[in-house]
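Good day; I would like, with your permission, to put a structural problem before you. What I wish to show you is a protein chain and, alongside it, a tokenised description of its three-dimensional fold. I would ask you to consider whether the tokens describe a fold that such a sequence might reasonably adopt. You will find the record immediately after this paragraph:
***
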Amino acid sequence: MILDNVLKEINYKKICGNTEMDIKSLSINSKNELKDSLFIAIDGFKQDGHDYVKEAASNGAIASIVQKKVSAPLPMTMIMVDSTREVLPILCRNFYKEPAGSFKLIGITGTNGKTTTCYLINSILNKTGMKTSLITTVESFLNGKRVSFKRTTPESTDLNDFFDKSRKEKIDVACMEISSHSIDLHRIDYLDYDYFVFTNLSQDHLDYHKDMAAYFNVKKKLFLKEYRKIYGGKKAIINVDDSYGEEIFESTDLERVSYSLISDRGNNIWASNIKNSVSGIEMNINTSDGKILDISSPLCGYFNVYNILAAVGVCIDMGIDNRSIQEGVRSLSGVRGRFEKLDFGNRFTVIVDYAHTPDGMEKVLTTTKQILKPGGKIITVFGCGGDRDTKKRKIMGSISGKYADFTILTSDNPRTEEPDSIIRMIEKGLIESDSKEYIKEADRKKAIFMALEMASKNDVIVIAGKGHEEYQEFKDCRIPFSDRCIAEEWLIKKNEREHKSK
């Protein structure tokens, strides 16, 4: 595409160089193969793209968008703007010619439940025969083919390229998680969503947003009329049992569908006759026009009741038939790292969960309480991530002290912080909850092994915080690490020992 056309509707300060050249690609990574590309210099958290303009030119970039004065070799064209982050999605929209406009696009936002809700919607749509794409924290798929991204919500360049390929594959619907960071950093601007889903809001990312009001106001933007040109949007599916959801429901200009566990306050859909056990959920979903849908799911926990309601709310509004909805919910046996039950035979139950917020931890442990067999104990193994919200650490410690019979404090992704320092902050919450039933073991593998060694029949071990992640991040390295694989390694060794002793 000719550079002049890529720059359409961009408010630039100054252009130095030729704008009639043919641009073959857009990139924010100077290390890529950039022949005939436009390089956009983003001032990031760790690195500043302006420091790499010369490298981009040496790798083939023929033009660059900057917000600071930099020197670059001729004949590279330089375009100066106020904010490269804000113009990046406009450049992408122009270059890829609004790729998401040819299919329905669903965005799921909130603190917890985004991933499972995406999977549920995708499962239901697949039962109808629709072709879909999916972007989640756990994994992403383009018409059934796995795709890898580095972030929960990818950058504008990656998203637009993904949706351009989805368009070429002639998909019908794409469903994706929307993080607060991606909204604030303009990654999802100008994608033109059809549906927005709000799951809930609780404490998270306060290292970035500073307080809950700021965190909420970023999420809320998706639902406000003043931002409609940026985000698009036609309908909103909202959890009105959440106080923040109630506020969004009252303030949005979008057509609204409310979901709830409460039947007597005019909600559009609500759940009733809920039966929750370790084997799954049985319930009815009721609609305001008098329909009742029998739902059976192998997922368990009241938090999954809400996730199912959100997914069904979207699909009912899309006109999906009841049978596809029922089969789609029933066929999703679980999501990796989301209340994932590992097969330990009749020894005890092991659950791996991504719970890394106070609300997430409380929901996982209260659900575990509900499915606990008589005489069983709850043993938790968890830590908190380094370089992230420090305020939640003590709170999560107190929650484990309240609900678990025994807690093993360990490291999560300590990053640049010392693991023992993080553990001491969590420990304060356990002490204040009057829990004396805990130990500290910074080595996460040893901590998991300890929990498995001490467990008895009917006990439930909850390994929380990392879920689907397959790495552990330290100050100077990232190592392969999977909670699931560590637990399974223990089981293999245990079986070998028992076999030898016979």
Remarks:
- The chain has a mean pLDDT of 94.
- The radius of gyration is 24 Å.
